[in-house]
Amino acid sequence: MFCFRFSHFLFFFSLFSFFFYIFGASPNKIQATPVDAKKMVESRIKCYVCNSGTKGQADCTEDDHDKLKTFIKQCNPLTFGTFAGEEAKACRKVRQTVEDETTIVRECAYTGEELDGKRRTGNKGVTVLIDQCINDQNATFPCNSALSPPTGASVSLLFALSSMIFATFLCL
């Protein structure tokens, strides 16, 4: 009887923590705590922001951090549109080819979609390749020069499943 209750407790606890993580709930959001505006600004995502089609930004096509360094910008919340007031969630690199001319656009991303080499084809001769990544907290450089590792959601789900399996074998 103890094993049955313990295994259910482990499973539901880990599942609850997974959903808690996915839907963005945290003790800071639940409790009213003072907000340090300076820390919020410092913790904002930094991405490379450039367009190789803009005069003076030809180095935007490079993947060398030293050449991209001048394009590092802090991503501020959007002031208009569907995502107005939202903080950036990731960085994005868009490679657009129109006939024989390729343009690279690096920017802040305000959607949490996972776009790893997503290919979109438009009119004849137009191809768009999109990569979106989430910066590592300890990263020296923004991630939109290359791809990033998987996010914590998959780790949280893996923990939930492994807890259930562990509890099952514990009671055998």
UniProtKB/TrEMBL annotation:
Keywords: Glycoprotein, Signal
Stretch forming the signal peptide: 1-24
Protein name stated in the entry: Uncharacterized protein
Organismal lineage: Eukaryota, Metazoa, Ecdysozoa, Nematoda, Chromadorea
